Amino acid sequence: MVGKNMNESKPRDNAPEEISKSQRRRDALEIRALAARLIALSQAQLAQVPLDDQLRAEIEQARRIRSNVARKRQLQFVAKLMRRSDPTEIQAALEAFDQEARQLTARQHRSEAWRDHLLAAGDAAIGELLQKRRDADAQALRQLVRNAQREARADRPPAAARALFRELRALDEAEPLPPPAVD
Predict the structure, then answer these.
(1) pLDDT, tens digit, 9 for 90 and up, residues 120-133
(2) Domain 101-174 has CATH 1.10.60.30
(3) Are 113 and 172 in contact (CB under 8 A)?
(4) Using 50, 70 and 90 to split pLDDT, how confident is the model at 167?
(5) What residue spans define the domains of the chain?
């Protein structure tokens, strides 16, 4: 082994795996993005996230700062504090917020799809909905559909269509609506 370093040939059995500089940077950027999301949360959402007192105080401080440079510096400090602890609970809370938002979006889309289907197909679509959902108020739905169609023909603001949407959304909140049949 002439000219070869003796340390290079020995395998390290007990040494911890070294993390590359690139991986450390990716991790730091991920924590920084997490800190930015925390700062951007509403007060009610932030209250639901499990944070220690110092981190919560620094996030509140960052929210009050208006100067971009100072705010960026405070964001870096919040990220530094977060790197000292395990962010999995924080990530889980943010994921729960994201899941809730996705469910709300899906509810809106189902209600919109049914409203459009009811307005396009009329009584046939109402019958279809009533077969799938026995808890729906048939008379109210028929009246709202007729009024919405009348408003559309008269080129008036869609007040009945909005009321129909609210009715469908209330049904969906009780139990998710099935997808409407596509013609």
Answers:
(1) 988 888 888 888 88
(2) yes
(3) no
(4) very high
(5) 21-92, 101-174
CB 72 within 8 A of CB 33: no
Topology agreement, domain 21-92 and domain 101-174: yes
| 3-state secondary structure string across 20-39 | CHHHHHHHHHHHHHHHHHHH
Q: pTM of the entire structure?
A: 0.64
To which CATH superfamily is domain 21-92 assigned? PSPTO4464-like domains (1.10.60.30)
Determine the Cα–Cα distance for residues 160 and 5; give it in Å rounded to an integer.
Answer: 82
- 142 Cβ neighbours under 8 A, 6+ residues apart: 123, 126
Give the C-alpha distances (Å, rounded to integers) separating 55 from 40, 50, 64, 157, 159. Answer: 14, 10, 14, 49, 47
Q: Which two tokens stand for residue 80?
A: 């530094």
Among candidate residues 86, 105, 68, the one with its CA nearest the CA of residue 31: 86
Tens of pLDDT along 40-61?
998 888 888 888 899 999 999 9
Please name which of 68, 90, 69 lies closest in space to residue 81, comparing C-alpha atoms.
Answer: 90
